[in-house]
Design a protein that fits this description.
Largest sheet of chain B: 6 strands, antiparallel
Radius of gyration of chain A: 31 Å
Number of helices of chain A: 5
Strand content of chain A: under 5%
Helix content of chain A: 55-70%
Order of helices and strands of chain A: HHHHEEH
Distance between the termini of chain A: 87 Å
Structural class of chain B: alpha+beta
Strand order of the largest sheet of chain A: 1-2
Structural class of chain A: mainly alpha
Shape of chain A: rod-shaped
Number of helices of chain B: 20
Largest interface: A-B, 43 and 48 residues
Oligomer: heterodimer
Order of helices and strands of chain B: HHHHHHHHHHHHHHHHHHEEEEEEEEEEHH
Strand content of chain B: 5-15%
Distance between the termini of chain B: 61 Å
Chain lengths: 154, 683
């Protein structure tokens, strides 16, 4: 029974490992570019008789089989074919700026807009319009008084 | 005369340049006289009129040049270097015509011709507002002068081939020999060039301190038509890439693609925020800069792709005219900044936001997200240059970057697409929020749960997470649009006693702009649903012999035969594949691989079996050199057809929005004027 469990566990692990290798191959193959100058993702290069993609895919399989991690594999390809082989800037250092900047701009712009809207709304509440239709800015206390007047008026 | 037609073309361009310069100079002089109140020997009105007429004649002259180039293509006049390099004798007549825009010089000529055509229409319709049109016409002449200078001095399309003239041309790039390529570039250029018109009106209105918002009403149709051309152009390009390039996708985030997307994003932002200016007199400076930016992005896009600054797979990209575009871009920016600084007091907002939870606020955030998306695309496009400058080596910024950064932004935008129309102008009460949001929220949550029950696993795969969010939010947006339609239709139905369908049609007629906009939003959601299907793509590659079979998804492909053929234009290898589903014959597909002798290049012809559920997309990858048997790659791409359906819905929606609204009093037959209640007023 114990032997059966070990065999079953081993089979499951092997299946999982095989599946993991397939997923990793797909993931890494989609994170690199074919160097045949087509500009396409390595696993999507479809040039008839492409001089590079088959060799590169073979090299990727070899690196995966050797048990290397993702980063060493990327480094190996970048060292052999140049950093442009990587489909996205993932070398660390200045490459990180590529990822951070859009997020930072998004956050800053959102927060900035939220503050701007809030300030506009406050300023709007702090303003009354004369019978002639001219908006007049009220001092803080006057604004409170005006609000109280409006809210207690009947 | 040894080369009559090229000479005629060259002189036409020269004449066009002279006319455009004259139009610019006389138009500028008349506007200066009007602005300062000084008058010369000729009255400013007469100067303005002569400038207008010169602008109209510019169109005639550029048309002659375009005609000369097309004529040279059809008569196989290989003395013209451009014709030699982009056509050959056996080329199909449609592609000979499209040679006009298949190379750099020709595409600049097309750009110039379209600009002249837009100017022609604008100048003919000058009575809409003579003074404003005179301003816009002069600005258009300025832009026209730049493109004609390029054509005359930097990229002349009628250059004569030196030395002995070959008996046949080098042929058109095989990838461009596809029916969509005959219409994709003109559509895209109509979009690009078209943004010059609202830009010219906005700049003109600012220069003359045009009172009120009439310039927006005048340019609204120009902007929408231009936006539609750009949208259709972009998606025709995507469809071409999907049908011709044969990698199974439709968008590769190439700099040339990005260049078309950036002005589309700012143009879309402008179309939304301009409503705030119309309705509430707000965001005037913002709108002016949005349309300035949109125009400058069309120039920047051209600069990026033609200067060689960034690498692109598009063959026309590299050239030496980048410096011209640098100069022009700087000049345009300086003019815009100068005019804005001088006239900024004219752009004071008339109203302030009254509530954070309001339609105005949602427009503001919608604009923000569109601009962040535009920045992200620009950043990704320029980062390789920046990386080379900082690190000494270029980095590639491809699909993995954009998928990770741009997708969340896109999803947030989708969320706002649903939320915006549900909020009222000025301020929205909690009760309204509860009433308007309940149905879309239920639709969103129910779709998410339904998809997870249907084995979508967002926690296992990031692409499935994005996909699930896109489907769920899309369902929410559709529910929001439907509830808006139903609410309005119910009111009309109650008033008129008509059934819900007729009432819906009447509702659209009463406020074409608002409901046309909703239809466009619906189209956008349908496109996003189509794109989200990409998370579930499958593919299979196999070498096949006679009778061999293999499966992808629910389909089984059996190789019936494979063979080779030849014609004067290309040699072809193709396979005949019978497709079965659940054991039943469905269709026969014939993927091809072609070799074009004239240009010595290979090309694939994709075979695609498209259904509402998925596309079976098959490519002939080549032959195994050892067995000489074909290698076939088959993709199962879910929901792709919905992208093209979505574009069609956008076209319909834009036409509805462009149509004039019928007033409720005319539309209702059974209700008196006093009873008529405007439904769905406002956008």
């Amino acid at each position: 029974m114990a032997q059966l469990c070990v065999v079953l566990l081993g089979t499951v692990l092997l299946m999982a490992a095989a599946d993991d290798t397939g997923t990793r191959f797909n993931r890494l193959g989609h994170a690199m570019i074919c160097v045949c100058s087509c500009g396409q993702i390595l696993l999507e290069c479809n040039h008839v008789g492409c001089p590079d993609s088959d060799r590169m895919i073979g090299e990727l399989r070899t690196r995966l089989a050797s048990g290397d991690g993702d980063t060493p594999i990327f480094n190996w390809f970048a060292a052999k074919y140049g950093p442009t082989v990587l489909a996205a800037p993932i070398r660390g250092g200045f490459d990180t700026v590529a990822w951070i900047t859009p997020v930072a701009v998004f956050l800053l712009a959102t927060i900035g807009t939220a503050f701007l809207v809030r300030a506009w709304v406050r300023r709007r509440r702090n303003t009354v319009t004369t019978p002639e239709g001219i908006p007049v800015q009220l001092p803080e206390n006057d604004a409170v008084r005006e609000r109280i007047r409006r809210e207690t008026e009947y | 005369m040894p080369h009559p037609m090229p000479t005629f073309g060259s002189f036409s361009l020269l004449l066009a340049l002279v006319l455009a310069v004259y139009s610019l100079a006389m138009g500028g002089a008349s506007l200066w006289q009007m602005a300062t109140g000084r008058s010369g020997r000729i009255a400013p009105e007469r100067l303005s009129e002569t400038a207008r007429r010169a602008g109209i004649m510019t169109f005639a002259a550029v048309s002659c040049a375009a005609f000369a180039l097309v004529w040279a293509a059809f008569t196989n006049d290989y003395s013209v270097a451009y014709i030699l390099h982009h056509t050959n004798r056996d080329l199909h007549p449609a592609y000979k015509f499209s040679a006009l825009w298949s190379g750099q010089e020709g595409s600049l000529l097309l750009w110039s011709w379209l600009l002249a055509a837009y100017g022609f229409v604008l100048r003919l319709r000058h009575k809409v507002d003579v003074r404003l049109t005179a301003h816009a016409s002069t600005i258009l002449s300025g832009v026209q002068v730049f493109f004609l200078l390029l054509l005359v001095f930097a990229a002349p399309p009628f250059s004569i081939q030196p030395g002995e003239i070959p008996p046949d041309g080098f042929g058109l790039n095989p990838l461009l020999q596809y029916p969509e390529m005959v219409i994709h570039p003109p559509m895209l250029y109509l979009g690009y060039v078209g943004f010059t018109v609202p830009f010219a009106f906005a700049l003109g209105a600012l220069i003359m301190r045009y009172p009120g918002e009439k310039w927006i009403h005048i340019t609204r149709r120009w902007t929408m038509v231009t936006w539609l051309f750009l949208t259709v152009g972009i998606f025709l390009g995507a469809h071409w890439a999907y049908s011709v390039l044969g990698w199974g996708g439709y968008w590769g985030w190439d700099p040339v693609e990005n260049a078309s997307l950036m002005p589309w994003l700012t143009g879309t932002a402008f179309l939304h925020s301009v409503m705030m200016q119309e309705k509430r007199g707000m965001m005037k400076s913002w709108n002016v800069w949005l349309i300035f930016s949109t125009f400058m992005l069309t120039v920047l896009g051209t600069l990026l792709t033609r200067s060689g600054l960034v690498s692109s797979v598009h063959a026309f990209a590299q050239s030496s005219i980048g410096n011209w575009f640098y100069g022009f871009l700087v000049l345009v920016f300086c003019v815009c900044l100068f005019v804005f600084v001088r006239q900024r007091d004219h752009l004071k907002t008339e109203n302030k936001l009254e509530s954070i939870v309001s339609r105005e606020s949602s427009f503001l955030f919608n604009n923000l997200i569109l601009l962040v998306a535009c920045f992200t695309v620009l950043w990704g496009t320029l980062f390789p240059v920046l990386s080379e400058y900082v690190q000494g080596s270029k980095a590639t910024v491809g699909a993995p970057f954009y998928n990770r950064v741009a997708l969340p932004i896109g999803l947030f935008l989708l969320f706002l697409t649903g939320v915006g129309p549900l909020l009222a102008w000025r301020s929205t009460t909690l009760r309204t929020i509860r009433r308007n949001f309940i149905l879309p929220s239920i639709a969103t949550v129910a779709t998410a749960i339904g998809l997870m029950i249907a084995h979508v696993r967002p926690w296992e795969d990031q692409s499935q997470l994005y996909s699930l969010m896109a489907f769920s939010l899309g369902a929410g947006v559709i529910a929001a649009i439907l509830s808006e339609f139903l609410r309005g239709a119910n009111v009309v139905s109650t008033q008129t006693g008509k059934n819900l369908f007729t009432a819906s049609l009447q509702l659209i007629q009463r406020n074409t702009r608002r409901y046309g906009g909703y239809i466009v939003h619906f189209g956008v959601v349908v496109i996003i649903v189509g794109i989200a299907g990409g998370a579930f793509n499958q593919s299979m590659e196999k070498e096949v012999g006679f009778g061999d079979r293999f499966s992808v998804g629910p389909y089984e492909l059996r190789c019936q035969s494979y063979t080779e053929d030849s014609n004067p234009v290309y040699d072809t290898k193709y396979a005949l594949l019978d497709v079965y589903k659940n054991g039943k014959f469905v269709t026969q597909l014939s993927p091809e691989s072609r070799f074009y002798a004239a240009s010595q290049t290979n090309s694939t012809v994709v075979a695609n079996y498209s259904t509402l559920q998925h596309d079976l997309y098959v490519i002939y990858m080549g032959n195994n050199p050892e067995t000489n048997r074909p290698i076939i790659k088959a993709f199962l791409n879910p929901l792709v057809i919905w992208i093209w359906i979505g574009v069609f819905i956008i076209i319909v929606g834009t036409f509805v929005a462009l149509a004039p609204a019928i007033k409720p009093a005319l539309a209702t037959s059974r209700v008196s004027h006093t009873e008529a209640v405007a439904v769905g007023s406002g956008d």
